[in-house]
Design goal:
alpha/beta, four-stranded mixed β-sheet, Macrophage Migration Inhibitory Factor, globular, 4 strands
Length: about 120
């Protein structure tokens, strides 16, 4: 169920591999033990039109959406793990940020097809 959504500028980075970034954030989140690797969904979106502090500087922002119920300590662990992976892969990007979002368990609905 957890979703990692990566938003990043199309420019302003030393070269980076978005698929490697998605895998690194997946592994970082799963490595905390707070979420299960098999449940994670990761996607990335590049933005052509953006400003950072009023100018065109590179940015990358990751949002992790999970069902409510994690402790503040678990959320900090996730946030720090994701940020560390981003810093490792994007050391020259001006702005790197992470946000952990609780989703309302009652309001969240999904449908899965039986893969049998």
């Amino acid at each position: 169920m957890p979703h990692i959504v990566i938003e990043h500028s199309s420019e302003g980075h030393a070269a980076f591999d978005v698929v490697a970034l998605m895998r690194a954030l997946h592994d970082a989140a799963a490595g905390t033990g707070v979420v299960h690797a098999a449940d994670l969904k990761v996607r990335a979106m590049a933005f052509e039109n953006y400003l950072v502090g009023g100018k065109r500087d590179g940015f990358c922002h990751a949002s992790l959406y999970l069902l409510e119920g994690r402790t503040p300590e678990q959320k900090v662990m996730l946030s720090e793990a994701l940020r560390a992976a981003m810093v490792r892969l994007m050391p020259h990007t001006t702005s790197l940020s992470v946000d952990i979002r609780d989703m309302d368990a009652e309001a969240y609905k999904k449908r899965l097809l039986d893969q049998a």
